[in-house]
Specification:
Blueprint lengths: L2 H22 L8 H13 L4 H21 L12 E4 L2 E4 L17 E5 L4 E4 L5 H14 L4 E5 L5 H4 L2 H6 L4 E5 H9 L1 H12 L1 H4 L9 E4 L2 E8 L4 H5 L5 E7 L11 E4 L4 E9 L12 H12 L7 E6 L5 H24 L4 H5 L12 H17 L4
Parallel strand pairs: 4-5, 5-6, 6-7, 11-12
Antiparallel strand pairs: 1-2, 2-3, 3-4, 8-9, 9-10, 10-11
């Protein structure tokens, strides 16, 4: 074979390898098509050029290392701009509908707090692209590093982006013990479901880093630096070391969850304990009675004048969030409990008037589902 013919053969083999890898690889959800293309090319040339084979494999290793070091390679996504909640506290309010390709999986709130010693992120994001995009917004506001990340529960939009934060050097990650165990056990299923709903490529790089988390039960306190560097805190008479309180008030929307309270900023991040504006949605693992009890435990712990940042919806006050979440749960549970006690049917429960909530996003998808869920929970029927 002449030198020119060999070049043509190599180029053709390279293009073919890339096309086959990209189009027909059944492992797209767990492998990078760019890297797999070069690995296929390296295998193709191995029979006549060990040097080229070794060079290509070395390049593959370098690309893997570079990708892992930066966490994400690509442009920032066009997500909403972070809203300032109070001094040094920001939240990106996610979409009010289901996770899908148009919102990149951002259908919960991603928040961050700027402390004297660094930045604390609440919720890792649904994928590395979202985590990276949030990180760029943080960098636009401060040159302080992200030092702490906590996640609200084991759901994909809270947890799947955690590997990005690990890759960029965050050492302090937190979750309730039960939620971390649940995420670890269901990682492959969660990644597959979010890949199908949001997109395979955007979910591709997510890895299970549950072993990197520090976990807690009930309550954990984290010191995050002195408050004396914040003039606004001094004006409020606060000059001590700031602390973040992590709470798991109990099951509800999910079997376990993490809420975050910062007394020095008078702000509380409810996680999925609280929904504002958006209709709460019940899943097969949701325990509505326990959710009511968990919410009551929260209200008995957190001061009434605290700013509330819900898991879904815009920041608000304690009274509004109670009306939006707790009052809805109580209304639904108590009225369907009466139906069950009167030997009423599932159809009676589904007919319960929820029209006062019809202006809330996903009402039509959630109202009947929620009534059915509560009826089955109380009556012991199947889900």
């Amino acid at each position: 074979m002449t030198k020119r013919k060999r070049r043509v053969f190599v180029s053709t083999a390279f293009i073919f390898a890339l096309q086959v890898t990209y189009v027909s690889a059944s492992e797209l959800a767990t492998q990078d098509p760019y890297i797999e293309g070069f690995k296929a090319y390296a295998e193709e040339v191995k029979s006549y050029s060990n040097d080229l084979n070794h060079s290509l494999l070395s390049y593959v290793d370098e690309v893997k290392k570079a990708e892992k070091q930066v966490g994400y390679i690509g442009k920032a996504l066009p997500i909403p701009k972070a809203t300032k909640v109070t001094d040094g506290v920001y939240t990106v309010v996610g979409s009010m509908i289901w996770h899908n390709p148009s919102n990149f999986g951002l259908n919960n709130n991603l928040s961050f707090i700027i402390f004297e010693d660094g930045v604390f992120v609440f919720n890792a994001g649904a994928n590395a692209a979202l985590a990276y995009s949030l990180h760029q917004q943080i960098k636009a506001l401060t040159d302080k590093p992200v030092k702490w990340v906590a996640v609200e529960n084991n759901q994909g939009h809270a947890y799947l982006g955690a590997s990005y934060w690990v890759d960029v050097g965050v050492k302090n990650l937190y979750s309730s013990q039960a939620a971390n165990d649940q995420f670890d056990a269901g990682f492959e299923r969660t990644k597959r479901e979010w890949s199908e709903r949001v997109g395979k490529n955007i979910t591709l790089s997510a890895r299970n880093v549950s072993d990197q988390f520090t976990t807690f039960e009930d309550k954990m306190v984290i010191e995050v630096g002195g408050g004396q560097g914040e003039l606004s805190l001094l004006k409020r008479g606060y000059s001590g070391v700031e602390k973040v309180y992590l709470y798991d008030f109990g099951p509800g929307h999910t079997p376990a969850s993490t809420s975050l309270y910062i007394p020095s900023r008078k702000v509380f991040f409810t996680g999925d304990l609280g929904f504002n504006e958006r209709m709460p949605v019940f899943f097969k693992y949701t325990n509505v009675k326990a959710w009511i009890e968990s919410y009551e435990a929260m209200m008995s712990t957190i001061p009434e004048d605290t700013i509330m940042v819900p898991g879904h919806g815009t920041p608000t006050n304690m009274a509004t969030l109670k009306k939006q979440t707790y009052d809805y749960l109580v209304y639904l549970y108590q009225n369907i409990e009466k139906i069950v006690e009167a030997d009423g049917s599932l159809e009676d429960a589904l007919s319960l008037d929820q029209s006062m909530y019809q202006d809330r996003p996903v009402f039509r998808q959630a109202a009947e589902n929620n009534a059915r869920h509560v009826y089955n929970e109380i009556s012991g029927g199947g889900f």
